[in-house]
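In response to the reviewer comment on reproducibility (Comment 2.3), we provide here a single inverse folding case reported in full, input and output, so that an independent group could reproduce the run without further information from us. The structure tokens appear first.
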């Protein structure tokens, strides 16, 4: 698995290099060669049901903007979508009522954390540890942090404007999305000989008609 956090072009060169590294150290059986992947989406759409499609989990931008956790969102939204299809609830209403406030709070937390920097983050982490020792429960602080309170609600328009970017999707929906960080000069490097060979192998397979669910550019 390769995870990229900044704007990257030709993202598969990272996977080529990773495979080359592992091949040198371990016996890898990677046949048939298949590449799967996706783009983590920290985006809030204006609709969660559109043209008969239910957008669940990451496809609906339902994940935590602060820590990247999304499994619980994925499972909860999946269950809600299934219930909605069975006529037991309205997916759009449930997601907006139960999940969107948490995603928004996570975006606000991310916005605040971006501002306090490493030192501020350490202070928060230390406070969290002390709170855990005192209460014997590390989740108490997290619950407080994720409670969508009045201050957080007031901050939301600022966060939306200052941190998220509005984008119109091909299907007609609009999203407010957390953009990738800009690439750095150290993202420019020469691949190893073996990584180039692995890339060529993959190109040959792709030319034979194999498709991926993700593009080469993550910008
Ligand atoms: C490195 C890493 C660590 C993480 N750690 C945590 C963690 O500790 N806790 C946590 O809660 N979350 C974590 N997450 C986030 C979490 O994994 C995701 O939010 C969650 O798996 C999203 O589930 P999903 O079902 O919405 O999407 P996915 O798990 O991405 O599933 C989507 C599936 O659809 C497939 N697909 C895509 N396009 C197509 C297509 N056109 N046709 C057919 N199939 C397609 C993909 O191959 C994929 O298998 C982590 C994520 C990463 C990358």
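Designed residues, in position order:
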């Amino acid at each position: 698995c390769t995870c990229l956090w900044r704007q990257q072009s030709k993202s598969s060169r990272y996977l080529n290099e990773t495979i080359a590294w592992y091949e040198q150290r371990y016996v890898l059986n990677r046949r048939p060669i298949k590449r799967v992947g996706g783009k983590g989406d920290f985006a809030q759409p204006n609709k969660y049901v559109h043209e008969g499609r239910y957008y669940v989990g990451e496809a609906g931008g339902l994940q935590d903007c602060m820590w990247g956790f999304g499994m619980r969102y994925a499972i909860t939204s999946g269950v809600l979508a299934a219930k909605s299809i069975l006529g037991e609830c309205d997916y759009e209403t449930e997601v907006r009522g139960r999940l969107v406030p948490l995603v928004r709070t996570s975006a606000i937390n991310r916005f605040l954390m971006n501002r306090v920097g490493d030192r501020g983050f350490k202070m928060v982490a230390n406070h969290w540890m002390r709170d855990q020792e005192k209460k014997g429960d590390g989740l108490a602080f997290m619950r407080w942090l994720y409670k969508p309170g009045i201050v957080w609600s007031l901050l939301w328009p600022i966060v939306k404007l200052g941190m998220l970017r509005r984008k119109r999707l091909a299907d007609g929906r609009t999203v407010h999305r957390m953009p990738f960080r800009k690439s750095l000069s150290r993202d420019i490097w020469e691949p190893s000989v073996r990584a180039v060979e692995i890339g060529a192998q993959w190109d040959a397979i792709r030319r034979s008609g194999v498709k991926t669910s993700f593009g080469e550019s993550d910008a």
